[in-house]
Amino acid sequence: MDPLPLFLLLLPFFATLSSAADTISANNSLPGSQTITSAGGNFVLGFFKLGNSSSRYYVGIWYKKVSKITPVWVANRETPVADQSTSELRIAGDGNLVLLNQSKSIVWSTDANISSNSTLAVLLDDGNLQLRDESNESQVFWQSFDHPTNTWLPGSKVGLNKVTNRNQHLTAWKNDDDPAPGIFSLELDPNGTSQYFILWNMTTEYWTSGIWNGQIFSNVPEMTANYVYNFEYVSNSTENYFIYTVKDNTIISRFVMDVSGQIKQLTWLENSQTWILFWSQPRQQCQVYSFCGSFGSCNENALPFCKCVQGFSPKSQSDWDLGDQSEGCQRNTPLQCGRSNSSRTEKDGFLTMSNMRLPVNSRTLSAVGSDGACEAACLSDCSCTAYSYGSGGCSVWHGDLLNLQEQFNGSDASTLYLRLAASELQSSKSNKGTVIWIVVGVAVAVLTCLAIIWFMIRRRRKRQMMRASKAVGGGLVAFRYGELQHATKNFSHKLGGGGFGSVFRGSLPDSTVVAVKKLEGILQGEKQFRTEVSTIGTIQHVNLVRLLGFCSEGSNKLLVYEFMPKGSLDTQLFQSNSAALDWRTRYQIAVGIARGLAYLHEQCRDCIIHCDIKPENILLDDSCVPKVADFGLAKLVGRDFSRVLTTMRGTRGYLAPEWITGVAITPKADVYSYGMMLFEIVSGRRNLEQTEDGTTGFFPTLVASKLKSGDVGSLLDHRLEGEADLEEMERACKLACWCIQDDESCRPTMGQVGQVLEGFLEVNMPPIPRSLRVLAETPEEINFFYEFSSNQSSKTRSATSNSTQTKSTASNSSGV
């Protein structure tokens, strides 16, 4: 047979397959083994399963470009199908999109009012699934954006339809393995005000966004930093809604009503293959209403956050293990009150619970005037489950206790008396008595042993510390935790702290003063930690703080550094009670920092990116020689950890734009931070600061304008009374502007920075970074100036490349 006629016969079939890549038509259903993908390759629609269950399949939409399935919409969230292979998603005879299970019964449908003879389901590149007229794509009968589940995607609405009075709201999953609607939801105020509420059980509001003021919601000041997102609130005669979009289409971002009861904004980082959290509300987990359920207590200082109070156990341990505590706890032993067979000796009692946030829905007994009378009043009422007596009088609770919080440090912390069966209280007392006798016996034995060996331990410790002190002048010393605890007087003299831990002053037996840093969040094993530290210990430079030793015992990870008597640079620059550093000293400090960073970036065996350059991490010795501190911690904890740490807990004002956009970090991120710090060295004040007339000023924008007008002398710290080299000042200001360019390719290297400061390279007039131009036009946004967009305009790139000259024959895009 001639192959050409066969090809012509099959051509319509291939055309149908090609056109159906992102669609479901009447002639093209979606079986459980297949998926469809949006035209631009952003989203996938198909069947998926959660957890370890092989009998629960869902139809949903997830990201194509995210390595782990992250559903953003689920059709049959309450009715999973048991057999994927025999289920299908198809267009029904009435034009609706329906899901058929293995028995060909409809388990989910769009249920739209359709007036067309032929419909088509199309998955769009923004994650919206539309059911529309096949011959008229503008006629949309139903779309998933109108029926969100737990995720709010860019471009979709969450609002109120005033015509139908239908509220589009987000509802959290039941738990991480079950997308069925949970008890937490986010919705726009149904009364018509422009604020969003988070609700518990669709009834109790425990967080509000505040009213829309035309630019942001009043309780969400983070929205001011809108260099990543565009925001719009719309209110007209038919609907109220809020919508957001991402300025850079390469950023994958989602807004989620989480199972934790918090709303969260997350961004996907491809390099680390993980979602990172940029923002959440409420900020503390225990602020979520009834997060731990009835008789469950929340503790902000413990993991997991929830536990049942004494005398109670989880109603469903399996749900608790999956992060769903909504069912709360149940009594282990029923109360004796009201039971016909209870004896007179089996009276209920009360367990004392101190430092508690009291549960909600209390009743005040105004006629009761003492603690004893309050207890008696509760004890006489079989429905009373707890009481509290304080300045507000006698409060009693009936039924379930909700919203309990332990170790509560708020001003309204109180003592709660929880009603328990007598056997529960006796068991508690018996256990306490046994424990006390055991403790007494052990204590006597231990004290006896200590009396015998105390002198030997003291002498041994002294000999070990003397050996360690002598070794400090040579190689790296491996200290024991007890030795550093003794050297720092049990960590009593705190010098400061930061994202990686706290620093304490210590003294070795030979009177060598050291700084001891207790690290937090370090997960390496003993061998890996020692290997990393030994590598860092070999890095020595006059402008890097020297590592003398370390300690690694279990979870205790400490680093021992040389002590810097003049402290950190921020105390010398910003504290009013400190003598102002003269210009010559400041300039040499800037040069020294540049040399230290250039060594880390360009001369070490492995490039080390500091990730947190700021005045607090620059230490000064007796001669004001600068030394970069914490330079090895980015390497020690890993770059991914550093990324998250800096994004979530770093210092505002020093973060390069690429931190926000999630692209791979290079040494140019340190260059940006250095540029921001160089501004502060010149001015002697924070870049963002209240001026004398009460307005908020952003110093880099002032530098840009003064460079243009040629008046750099006015930028100098006023305490120096104009005593400075104006040529050096202009050079430093130009260089700082080059360092903070939005496009990292336009920034110089740290090696070039040092050469400019030392006069070996000239620096040209820099273009004003786009982020500074935006801030100059919208000064109300400067409180969050640290989140800049990473996209440099082509005009800026052109201006940059056309204005670069050097004393040498080479030229580059950084302007030096």
TrEMBL record:
Transmembrane portions of the chain: 435-457
UniProt catalytic activity: L-seryl-[protein] + ATP = O-phospho-L-seryl-[protein] + ADP + H(+); L-threonyl-[protein] + ATP = O-phospho-L-threonyl-[protein] + ADP + H(+)
PROSITE patterns, alphabetized: BULB_LECTIN, PAN, PROTEIN_KINASE_ATP, PROTEIN_KINASE_DOM, PROTEIN_KINASE_ST
GO biological process: recognition of pollen; response to other organism
Class of enzymatic activity (EC top level): transferase
Entry GO CC: membrane
Pfam family, one: PAN_2
Keyword Signal: yes
Protein name: Receptor-like serine/threonine-protein kinase
